[in-house]
Design a protein that fits this description.
Radius of gyration: 17 Å
Number of helices: 3
Helix content: 10-25%
Shape: globular
Strand order of the largest sheet: 1-4-3-2
Structural class: alpha/beta
Largest sheet: 4 strands, mixed
Order of helices and strands: EHEEEHEHEEE
Strand content: 25-35%
């Protein structure tokens, strides 16, 4: 078994496997438009052979795009449409406050909408928000208390 297919070592048969976030799937109205948006923001698309879905390497987590009606049907949920606050924000951290503003500008240039310009925030960092073409909310933040490791992952304090 290769490391790419090995089961997590903490899994014990008969018990629940440890929770890990591997994929985030966004239901989208127009798959080609959404693919272009995320490619313009610099995400690398992978597995181009699977039809009707797109997968992107998002730095240790996979971002997948799936047509919204098909995602709702797969989850056996009613599609209530877009609009309004969903109660979810995706987020990514950047190494400096000026990188927040650059990321927001890049999202807007790619077809997203800046909904909160970069600004100092109550917890001591700097952040802002944009939505993708389907209204999915993204936070971009510089958090001076969460540094990055050599692989670009956040290091949370103990």
């Amino acid at each position: 078994m290769t490391s790419a297919t090995a089961a997590p070592s903490a899994f014990v048969p008969g018990s629940a496997p440890p929770l890990r976030l591997h994929l985030v799937t966004l239901g989208v109205a127009d798959l080609p438009r959404s693919i272009a948006f995320y490619e313009t923001l610099g995400l690398a698309r992978r597995d181009r052979t699977t039809e009707g879905v797109a997968f992107f390497d998002a730095g240790g987590v996979v971002l997948s795009l799936f047509p919204r009606p098909a995602l709702a049907a797969d989850a056996m949920r009613a599609d209530t449409g877009t609009g309004g606050f969903s109660g979810i924000a995706l987020a990514f951290n950047v190494p400096a406050a000026d990188a927040v503003d650059a990321a927001l500008a890049a999202a807007q240039a790619a077809g997203g909408t800046v909904v909160k310009a970069g600004q100092r925030v109550f917890w001591g960092g700097y952040g802002g928000y944009f939505t993708d073409p389907d209204g999915h909310l993204w936070e971009v933040a510089h958090n001076p208390f969460f540094p990055f490791d050599a692989a670009g992952r956040l290091v949370l304090p103990d």
